[in-house]
Structure formats: C-alpha cells, structure tokens
C-alpha cells in the first residue's frame, strides 16, 4: 500500500532539515563550451604493451584450399567453413582490484588469450602488460570466442567465463591475488561443444547469485545453416542457474528460453542463429529479462517467399527466473541479420531503448538476385514505450546504414545524451564487406535523432580494413571520458583495393560503403580467387581526447547480499539500472555483463554532464529497491552501495524507513563498504523519501 505521511509525525526541526536538503538538488552552470572529441589508437605505440595478432580457427585450412581451386562455385561457398578466422572477444574489467580497467582478449587455437594488466595506477599513465600465462587464463588449447565477467561467488573479485567456438567453455575463478583457477569441470559450464559467441551474466531469480546466458549458433564447418537449412542445424541458446560454490545447472528448457514463438508449426521447438544475448531489466521492474539478436542469414524473408527466423527476441521474466517470449507484442519481430546489442535511454523519455547492428543496406546490393528493400536490414534502434512496445522509427536522414557486429551505447562526448557506436565487417566468402569504417552516431540533444559523426574517428585506424568483430567501452585512463576497444579476426593491407558498392542511396555512408572481392566471376556461378590475401586480426585501443570541456561522473555499484538483511543484489550490482539527472537532462543506462557481440563493456558507467556541475544518481537494484544520492559533483566517482530500504517502499511511517536506512549504513560502514560518506547517503535517503511522497 502507499504510505501517507501525516504532518503531525514530522517535527519543525525535521521540516527545516528537509528544506535545507533541497539546496543540494542539481543546479545548472555556465553555457557549454564545445570542442570536438577525437579518438587515438594507442595499440601501435611502442610503449603500449598491447601485442596481439588473431590466430584463425582450424578450418581456415579448408578455406585456403578453396582459394587454390581452378573453379570456385556457390556450392563450394555453402560447403565451405563459416567465419574461419574465428570470433575474438573482449572483456573490460578490473581483474586485480587496483582501481584501473584491464583487458581480456580471446584468441584462436594454439595461441594464448591475452590478459592485459593496465599499469595506470602503478606508473600514472596508461600502458599494459600481458599477464595471461602467469594468471592462468591463457586458454591456449581452446578456440576461444566470447567473454563475460562477474563475481559469481560474491567474494569481491571478478571471475572470467570464456566461450568456445565448437569447443568447451571455460570458467576461471578469481583467486583474489591476481591469479585464476579453472573450475570448468566443477561448474558444469564446459559441456556441449557448441558454437557460442556471446555470454551475459545476471541474476535471473534475485537470489544474489549471477546466472549465465549463452548465445549459440551452428557448427561453422559449413555454411548450410546460413544459406540453405533454416532450423535443423541451429543450436539452442542456454541458461545456467548459479547454485553457489561454483556450481551451475542448465535451466534452458525449464526457464522457457528455448520456447520460441513466431515459427510455423513444422518448426516448433526449433532454435535460431543467435549472435548476441543480454540479461537486462528492459521494463525496469526489478528483474532481469533476456534479449537476444538472431540472424535470418541468406534465406529470404517471408514477404519475399522465404521464412522469417531472425528477430530481436525479448523474453520477459516473471520475477522467479521463468521467461515468456513476448517478441510479437514488443514489435521486435522484424526479420534481419541482427548481431550486436546495446541498451540505454536514447530519446530521454525515461525508458530503456535497444540498438542492434545488422547486415546493413549495402552488402546485399552485390547479390542482384537477392530481394531487398532499403531499410530491410538496416542497423538501427528501437524506442520503448510505457507498455513494453518498441517503436521502429527507421534511420531518418541517415537514409542507409552499414554492416555491424560489435555495438555500444555511450556518451562519447559527455554532452549528457547517449550516442551509438558499432563496428564490423564480414567475409561471405565471395567478397569481404568493408562498408563500416567505424561508425559513431551522434545523438541530437537527447531526442533520439542521430547524425553520422565524421570527426571522432577521422585520425585513428582505418576500420574499413579491419574485419572487426568485437567492441567494448570503458574509461581506461580514468579521465572521465569513455574509450573504445575493438578486435578484428582479419585485416586487409593498405594496398588492397576497395571498391564501391553498386547501389548508392544519397546518404552519408555511401562514400565509405566499400568491399573487396575474394573471388572474381568468370561465368555464371563460377569464380576464381582474386589473389586477396588477409592479414591476422588486430587489437585497437582508441583513447578519447577528452578535449571538449564537458564534465562527467562515474558510477560503480556494490550489491550487499549476505551483508545486509533483505539485500538481494550481487556484489557488483550487475543488472542495476542507473539514472543520472542534472538540471537540464536525464540519462539512463543499465549495468549489463555482456551483450555487444562476444564482448562486455566495463561495469563502471560514465555519465556525461555537459556543462553542469552536479547531478543526482538513482539506482534501481535487482529486486526492485530504489536508492538515490544527491549533489554528486562533476568529475566524481560514486561507489554506490545497495541500501535495502527503497524510498518508494511500503513503510508504516517515515521513522521506520529512516531506521532501516540508518542501521544499514551503520553496518556498511562497519564492514568497510562505505567510508566517510554515511551522513551523505543518509541525508539523500531522507530527501528521496519526501520527494517521492510529495509527487503522489
């Protein structure tokens, strides 16, 4: 029930106290002094320490043999391997709890994965040392793909989960001393030998333990699942519930994750080709839902006489870890080759929106017999409404968009609205798509209207020559601006000619929409190798110039399950939704432990303030508790603890709420979770309570 606080319960001193607290609300500052942001790649720097080359998968030998055939046919293409260069993944996280963000980059068989330890805290400037071998996470025998991280045992350090490309998965438990232990056999997460690309951690049943969702596709030994067979070769996605003590249980079927709708009766119980999956509270009701992006492949859409199978699927949680496919009702049943996923409030209406990368509008124009209309497979965004319906507004003045894999939503220029980034390329194998030279879509005043930013990536690497797969975001040098990490599975040399696609749309991406032929046609359905040779894939770390004068705050969350009674959030607060408000803006971002293709952003979120000096921060925790902190100053980092006393809870009176908050903060101070800011959190909790009551 709702509580009505009676005036007689509040003393004159308390009323005066609350009025004083209103003085700490966000205020506006001077006008914005805008200067452009640009990114610089440090990977090639002599002192960066970032030594990485992507080793291809074993089936690259089959593809290389095909290039030597006298005649190469479309049948050969279907019979040949898919993605023979593999799926490199990225995780940005602080593995050693030293206060800076480190990088884990996966690699192919026989090549060590890399754990790049950031030396920012040690030496005052950013550089890296690869410590994968000594940390015990090199996974040299695995054809590694996607990566996700999280504190699966709530012991205060982040554990590492590495997926396999037609290989077993590996769970590494963090020992807390800079080393890891392989607990794959104990965890029961290593079974299946599926082709997995993306994993996401989150607590599906609000028991305080991180569960794991995995996106699966098909065996890459051939491409039949892409071009010929819509269902029978696909592998179901998986969901593992955390049983504690490093053990997990497969609840994929029981949870409803494998019960997909929108299929014809003959395809009942079938699986899809899923590239990305995210555990995210899309409807902001306090429990984590599952969203995954599926690929229609080369099979035509239903409207062209084919089959629709590739949707952005939304599985709504009933609060106990049971899921229902609501894709149709959500309006995300739009067929496409959906790939990377990212989440955030793009149009400033207080709800979480979705961006997903796609095959784009250019790539299929090289296949004249493939039916296609402009916009069919555009990389694009969907706006949520209050009922969970997602509007597909199209891409507006962008007209057409390019191919993409890895995706992110972040405020690259700290102007207080969320922008979109996506990279990607693909070999199919007749030609290599190079339509994406690195894309940042800049939000216009938080309205969800986007333009192509032509400056930010102008002086960094040429991403059109990188077959980029994975992308992740985080502030690597602690300057208050987010940086970009990406990895490709192969590159093309600077002297390889890139050709324009045959169709131009009159949009800003036309000029950079390019491709390179792998095989040259010599007759109907017959080709010979063009001579194109590919270099091993590369890692880029693009640092933000932080040069436009805008300010920001950063927020990390600390769940207090097993520390405070009634707390439900896991130690890192994965799954929380954070709202930052200034006098003139509101920004909402969720903490998602994996969603961008094969990768995971930092769980420490950066929020741009523009020219504002301070803001309020609200956290919606897994389980539904809401806490708020006022008067967060620009350039401040907030470590926000879960206080299991929601300001909008069903309290008998104010003093019951106040006692809950005060006792919780006393315990958190005693446990060392908060230091020197107990009074600040208490004052903010009081103000949040009365502001909420006054809004009823």
TrEMBL record:
The keyword Mitochondrion does not apply. It holds the Pfam family UnbV_ASPIC. Residues 573-637 form the ASPIC/UnbV domain. Keywords: Signal. This is ASPIC/UnbV domain-containing protein. It comes from hydrothermal vent metagenome.
């Amino acid at each position: 029930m709702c509580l009505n606080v009676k005036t007689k319960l509040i003393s004159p001193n308390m009323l005066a106290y609350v009025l004083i607290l209103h003085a700490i609300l966000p205020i506006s500052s001077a006008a914005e002094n805008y200067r452009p942001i640009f990114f610089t790649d440090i990977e090639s720097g002599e002192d960066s320490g970032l030594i990485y080359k992507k080793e291809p998968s074993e089936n690259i030998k089959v593809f290389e043999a095909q290039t030597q055939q006298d005649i190469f046919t479309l049948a050969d293409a279907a019979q040949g391997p898919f993605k023979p260069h593999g799926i490199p993944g990225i995780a940005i996280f602080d593995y050693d709890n030293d206060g800076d963000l480190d990088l884990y980059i996966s690699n192919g068989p026989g090549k060590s994965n890399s754990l790049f330890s950031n030396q920012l805290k040690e030496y005052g400037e950013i550089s890296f040392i690869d410590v994968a071998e000594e940390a015990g996470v090199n996974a040299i025998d695995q054809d590694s793909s996607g990566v996700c991280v999280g504190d699966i045992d709530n012991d205060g350090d982040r554990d590492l989960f590495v997926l396999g490309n037609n290989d077993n998965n590996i769970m590494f438990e963090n020992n807390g001393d800079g080393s890891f232990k392989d607990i794959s056999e104990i965890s029961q997460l290593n079974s299946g030998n599926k082709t997995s690309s993306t994993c996401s951690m989150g607590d599906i049943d609000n028991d305080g333990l991180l569960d794991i969702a995995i996106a699966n596709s098909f065996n890459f030994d051939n491409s039949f699942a892409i071009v010929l067979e819509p269902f029978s070769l696909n592998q179901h996605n998986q969901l593992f519930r955390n049983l504690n003590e490093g053990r997990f249980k497969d609840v994929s079927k029981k949870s409803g994750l494998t019960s997909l709708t929108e299929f014809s009766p003959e395809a009942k119980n079938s699986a899809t080709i899923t590239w990305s999956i995210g555990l995210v509270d899309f409807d902001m009701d306090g429990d984590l839902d599952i969203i995954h992006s599926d690929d229609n492949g080369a099979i035509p859409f239903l409207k062209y006489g084919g089959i629709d199978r590739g949707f952005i699927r939304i599985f709504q949680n009933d609060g106990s870890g049971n899921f229902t496919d609501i894709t149709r009702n959500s309006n995300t049943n739009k067929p496409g080759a959906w790939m990377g996923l990212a989440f955030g409030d793009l149009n400033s209406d207080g709800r979480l929106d979705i961006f997903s990368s796609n095959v784009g509008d250019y790539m299929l124009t090289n296949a004249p017999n493939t039916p296609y209309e402009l916009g069919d497979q555009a990389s694009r965004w969907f706006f949520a409404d209050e009922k969970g319906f997602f509007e597909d507004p199209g891409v507006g003045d962008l007209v057409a968009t390019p191919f993409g894999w890895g995706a992110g939503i972040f405020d690259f220029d700290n102007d207080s609205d969320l922008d979109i980034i996506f990279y990607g390329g693909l070999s199919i194998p007749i030609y290599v798509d190079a339509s994406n030279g690195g894309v940042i879509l800049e939000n216009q005043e938080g309205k969800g209207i986007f333009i192509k930013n032509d400056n930010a990536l102008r002086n960094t690497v040429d991403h059109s020559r990188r077959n980029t797969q994975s992308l992740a975001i985080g502030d690597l040098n602690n300057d208050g601006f987010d940086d970009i990490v990406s990895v490709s599975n192969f590159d093309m040399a600077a002297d390889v000619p890139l050709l324009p696609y045959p169709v131009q749309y009159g949009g800003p991406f036309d000029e950079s929409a390019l491709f390179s032929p792998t095989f040259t046609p010599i007759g109907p359905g017959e080709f010979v190798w063009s001579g194109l040779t590919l270099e091993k894939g590369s890692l880029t770390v693009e640092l933000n110039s932080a040069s436009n004068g805008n300010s920001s705050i950063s927020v990390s969350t600390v769940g207090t399950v097993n520390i405070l009674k009634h707390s439900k959030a896991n130690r890192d607060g994965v799954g929380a939704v954070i709202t930052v408000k200034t006098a003139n803006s509101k920004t909402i971002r969720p903490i998602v432990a994996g969603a961008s293709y094969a990768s995971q952003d930092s769980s420490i979120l950066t929020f741009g303030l523009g020219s504002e000096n301070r803001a309020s921060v609200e956290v919606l925790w897994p389980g539904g508790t809401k806490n708020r902190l006022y008067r967060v100053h620009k350039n401040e980092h907030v470590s926000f603890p879960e206080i299991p006393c929601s300001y909008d809870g069903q309290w008998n009176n104010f003093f019951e709420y106040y006692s809950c908050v005060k006792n919780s903060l006393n315990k958190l101070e005693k446990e060392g979770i908060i230091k020197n800011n107990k009074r600040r959190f208490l004052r903010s909790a009081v103000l949040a309570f009365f502001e909420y009551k006054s809004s009823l």
